[in-house]
């Protein structure tokens, strides 16, 4: 294989590039100053002060791996792409009732300016006091900074659920401001991402050996806490009723969960799974399996069938609420005369059906779903539209009405 040739920059190229970058930054700085202040005072800044501001500028927000955490480069790249997109779409008011700029601009240029002004002494140079007075509202807007901190905290809480999988890695972030000197002084707002690889056991069931992964999550931003439930939470009467036991989940269960909850953002599914297990509600099926309710935004959409294996609770799969093997699904089939093939044809076994049709507006269909215990599915759109991923609209409402003979001429 031929060796890749090294790029050789022309003499002075790096110097020109750095000068261009500095000019671009100062252009943005002047723009933000004009929006944040009472008038244009950029011309009052001496050249040496501009050099200082450029040197102490905040770098763009980014995610970095925490010490000791091995995070795949592709994952970090995805996280940074998401961070960039979110920050570019959010706006920040520079002063009460004043102009807005993008969050990413505020966290770089805006905070650089704020940091400089806060430490600037009135007698530092001619015009310094005039500059500080010009930005009084900007400097003293504590409410803006509280909202920014709250937004970053909320954003940080989303990163873990969105990029974690219980059978691969559990990630969580911690917001940090890093100071460094690597040739040039720099300040970086960053999310320091930690990683935990879930504990794994091998289970031999029905003649097949498959892995199962211990369910846990980082709730405090410091370490992973394994979720446990009691036998009493499963309505199981044993001599160990109040003994907490660990929960394991098989990859198959996660695959089925993502297949059926097909248009809801990954982070919402992950958060809902953890919430459903922490606040466990369960029934038994005829095979002796425990059916743990899975809820989205408080709405029951299915069950997580589980068994007791070697003193642990093992979740084996996911059943959508309309499946014939759930209590509600059996009632729905009895009321409608549908079978498994009919349900699949009508696409009643995925969340997207209830997010993209008017199925809940047909009163007769609504009545049937309510009688079977599946009525909550018709409320999903109103509860989860903001968390959904756009999908093609379906015609299930018309198809189901025709199937049930509800559209009469």
Would you mind describing this structure in some detail?
The model has no long low-confidence stretch (mean pLDDT 87). This protein has helices spanning 13-36, 47-55, 73-89, 103-119, 128-134, 136-139, 142-163, 251-260, 266-278, 327-336, 340-346, 351-355, 363-372, 380-384, 396-403; strands at residues 58-65, 91-93, 100-102, 170-181, 185-196, 200-205, 208-214, 216-217, 225-226, 228-230, 244-250, 282-284, 290-296, 299-309, 312-315, 319-320. A hairpin with a 5-residue loop joins strand 12 and strand 13. With 409 residues, it is an alpha+beta fold. It starts with 12 loop residues before the first helix and ends in a 6-residue tail after the last helix. It is elongated and about 85 Å long. The chain folds into 2 domains: 19-196, no CATH class; 200-403, no CATH class. The strands form 4 sheets. Strands 6, 7, 10, 11, 12, 13, 14, 15 and 16 form a 9-stranded mixed β-sheet that branches. Strands 1-5-4 form a 3-stranded mixed β-sheet. It has a two-stranded antiparallel ribbon with strand order 2-3. Helix 7 (142-163) crosses helix 9 and helix 10 (327-336) packs across helix 13. The chain has 15 helices and 16 strands.
């Amino acid at each position: 294989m031929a060796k890749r040739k090294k790029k050789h920059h022309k003499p002075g190229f790096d110097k020109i590039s750095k000068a261009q970058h500095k000019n671009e930054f100062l252009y943005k700085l002047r723009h933000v100053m004009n929006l944040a202040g009472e008038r244009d005072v950029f011309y009052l800044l001496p050249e040496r002060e501009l050099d200082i501001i450029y040197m102490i500028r905040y770098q763009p927000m980014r995610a970095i791996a925490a010490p000791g955490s091995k995070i795949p480069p592709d994952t970090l790249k995805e996280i940074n792409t998401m961070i960039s997109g979110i920050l570019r779409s959010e706006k920040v008011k520079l002063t009460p009732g004043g102009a807005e700029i993008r969050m990413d601009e505020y966290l770089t240029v805006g905070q650089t300016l704020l940091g400089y002004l806060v430490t600037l002494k009135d007698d530092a140079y001619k015009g310094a006091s005039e500059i500080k007075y010009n930005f009084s509202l900007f400097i003293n807007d504590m409410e803006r900074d509280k909202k920014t901190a709250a937004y970053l905290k909320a954003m940080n809480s989303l990163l873990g659920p969105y990029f974690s999988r219980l059978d691969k890695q559990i990630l969580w972030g911690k917001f940090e401001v890093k100071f460094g000197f690597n040739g040039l002084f720099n300040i970086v707002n960053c999310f320091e991402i930690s990683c935990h690889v879930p504990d794994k056991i091998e289970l031999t069931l029905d003649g097949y050996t498959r892995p199962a992964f211990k369910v846990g999550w980082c709730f405090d931003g410091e370490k992973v806490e394994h979720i446990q439930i009691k036998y009493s939470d499963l309505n199981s009467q044993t001599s160990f009723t109040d003994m907490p036991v660990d929960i394991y989940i098989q990859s198959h269960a996660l695959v089925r969960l993502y297949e059926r909850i097909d248009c809801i953002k990954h982070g919402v599914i992950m958060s809902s799974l953890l919430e459903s297990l922490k606040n466990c509600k369960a029934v038994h099926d005829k095979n002796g399996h425990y059916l743990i309710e899975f809820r989205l935004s408080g709405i029951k959409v299915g069950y997580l069938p589980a068994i007791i294996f070697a003193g642990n609770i093992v979740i084996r799969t996911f059943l959508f609420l309309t499946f014939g093997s759930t209590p509600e699904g059996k009632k729905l089939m009895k009321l409608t005369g549908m079978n498994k093939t009919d349900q699949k044809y009508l696409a009643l076994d995925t969340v997207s059906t209830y997010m993209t049709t008017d199925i809940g507006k047909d009163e007769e269909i609504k009545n049937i779903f309510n009688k079977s215990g599946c009525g909550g599915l018709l409320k999903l759109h109103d509860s989860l539209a903001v968390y959904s991923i756009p999908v093609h609209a379906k015609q299930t409402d018309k198809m189901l009405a025709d199937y049930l003979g509800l559209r009469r001429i």
